[in-house]
Amino acid sequence: MKRIKFNKIKEFLKKVPKNLAEKSFLTFLLLFLIACIIGVYLFYTYAIAIKNLEPKPLEKSVQFNDELYQEILLKWNKKEKVFEKVNSKKYSNLFYPE
Q1: What is the DSSP string of 14-47?
Q2: pLDDT digits (tens, 9 = 90+) for 3-55
Q3: Phi, psi of 71 (to 5 degrees)
Q4: Rounded Cα–Cα distance for residues 49 and 44 (Å)
Q5: What is the predicted pLDDT for the residue at 18?
Q6: Which of the pair, 43 or 1, is modelled with greater confidence?
Q7: Dmax of the chain from CA atoms?
Q8: Cα–Cα distance measured from residue 51 to residue 46, given in angstroms and rounded to the nearest whole number
Q9: Residues 20, 27: contact at Cβ < 8 Å?
Q10: CB 44: neighbour CB atoms within 10 A?
């Protein structure tokens, strides 16, 4: 069984930044190419591929629930009355008593 020599791996990893810096133009081109590939992939998956998908038909048609709508209107009216009461209430001024 072959043993992994961590010293060789450690020495190689120490040389990587130096080699990348010496070949900075090629490194830039490689990173730019990788960024372009990722950008094209994301654009394709989220812009172009979605346009080609056909929407699935709904199994059940959407219906308006009138009873639920009336309940919501009642709740809103109650809240509106509470807010109107707060607006009409007059508070005494603590700093300039009358």
Answers
A1: HHHHHHHHHTHHHHHHHHHHHHHHHHHHHHIIII
A2: 888 899 999 999 999 999 999 999 999 999 999 999 999 999 988 878 777 77
A3: -60, -45
A4: 6
A5: 93
A6: 43
A7: 96
A8: 9
A9: yes
A10: 11
